[in-house]
Design brief:
Helix content is 6%, strand content 54%. With 379 residues, the protein is mostly beta strands.
Length: 379
């Protein structure tokens, strides 16, 4: 029996319940049913329970109650960082887009390094069976960096499969047209490279994620793993041919009392194919609030004759943090970062690393932690 305040058809709800009349009763099937319905994002709450006290002739009645969320939601955010300065975001979500559990997301972002980011996501869940979603994602993104500016106009088609509540993988095809202004090239040479400033990129990416942490913003235990492999250069006059792979692992281990040891390892390689160099907008750059905090944004990079960072084809980064309570909502952190970017693919050189150390302050708020770090290069 299905009850509740919902415009979602009962046939859709039954489709997500792996229980058939006359089948063998298992409590685990109730848990799976509740999770499947809740994962559709259509319901504020879901209750699936067996009414054991109403059994007749060894038949167990199953009671399902749902409460639907509003089909429209709007999320906004503003913030400030010393690197990207003022930033703002806007996200509009429409549930039950063309019925069922289909979803449409419209999102816009702005910051100094990302003046314009506009994208749409159409999500068709359970396209090839349960736990496999189809995602269509057109976008326009403008990036503003020291050595280049680029407008990316394109889109992606993704099949995303959820293996478990903590693990998922995806297969994505992407096609984009890049309008690049290479600021690392002297103006006297720009005319000869004019045709190179507009190019197509077409490729396939395979990725996997696993997250066993206990908290989205302030994890205290578990690991997070993100890895992907991209092959670029499939048809559509794709100018650049290369493969790119990267993997990042973060770990958290609790210490007594309320101290946390956190660590991160991040590595990546870009291998150009066919003799052409990799595009500057896709190379690795390091330094700043999200990597080696003793340097400014993207200051760790191979440079050209004019001293401008041009990025590299190999990257290795690691960090360790000791997090400890201070008072109430305030906590502190002592950390050390290490890493570098090298020009050649597989050009890792452990003897050629940059190091920094520093202290930080965290303030827990209802919308997430506020972070302040102070670091300096060492060694």
């Amino acid at each position: 029996r299905i009850h509740g305040d919902s415009l979602v058809p009962a046939s859709f709800i039954r489709k997500h319940i792996p229980i058939q009349p006359g089948g063998l009763y298992k409590e685990s099937k109730l848990d799976v049913s509740q999770q499947r319905l809740f994962d559709t994002d259509l319901f504020r709450y879901v209750v699936v329970r067996a009414q054991m006290d109403s059994m007749k002739q060894q038949r167990v009645p199953v009671y399902v109650e749902v409460s639907e969320v509003s089909p429209w939601s709007l999320e906004t955010g503003v913030g400030y960082g010393t690197e990207d300065r003022f930033r703002a975001s806007l996200r509009l979500t429409r549930l039950r887009f063309f019925g069922g559990a289909r979803k449409l997301i419209l999102e816009g972002k702005h910051s100094y390094f990302l003046p314009i980011s506009l994208e749409a996501k159409f999500i068709q869940p359970d396209l090839l069976g349960f736990n496999t979603d189809f995602i269509l994602n057109p976008y326009f993104i403008r990036e503003n960096e020291k050595s280049y500016t680029v407008d990316r106009l394109g889109g992606g088609i993704t099949f995303q499969h959820t293996f478990s509540q903590r693990s998922s993988g995806y297969l994505m095809y992407s096609l984009e047209r890049d309008f690049l202004k290479d600021l690392s090239v002297p103006d006297s040479l720009l005319g000869r490279r004019r045709k190179e400033l507009i190019h197509n990129k077409s490729g396939i990416t395979v990725g996997i994620t696993r997250n066993t942490t206990d908290n989205l913003f302030e994890p205290t235990t578990g690991i997070k793993l993100d890895g992907h492999f991209t092959y670029m250069g499939i048809g559509f006059r794709s100018r650049h041919h290369y493969y790119k792979t990267a993997i990042e692992v973060r770990g958290y281990h609790p210490l007594e009392p309320d101290w946390i040891l956190a660590g991160k390892v991040n590595a990546g390689v870009i291998q150009p194919l066919g003799g052409d160099p990799t595009p500057i907008e896709d190379r690795f750059l390091m330094g700043g609030a999200s990597s080696l905090r003793g340097w400014g944004r993207h200051e760790i990079s191979p440079v050209n004759e004019q001293g401008r960072p041009v990025g590299g084809n190999s990257m290795l980064e690691a960090s360790a943090e000791l997090r400890f309570p201070v008072y109430g909502i305030f906590s502190g952190v002592a950390f050390m970062d290490a890493g570098n970017v090298w020009r050649r693919a597989f050009g890792f050189d452990p003897s050629d690393m940059r190091y920094d150390a520093g202290l930080g302050l965290r303030v827990s708020t209802p919308v997430g932690p506020v972070r302040i770090d102070l670091a300096t290069p060492v060694f």
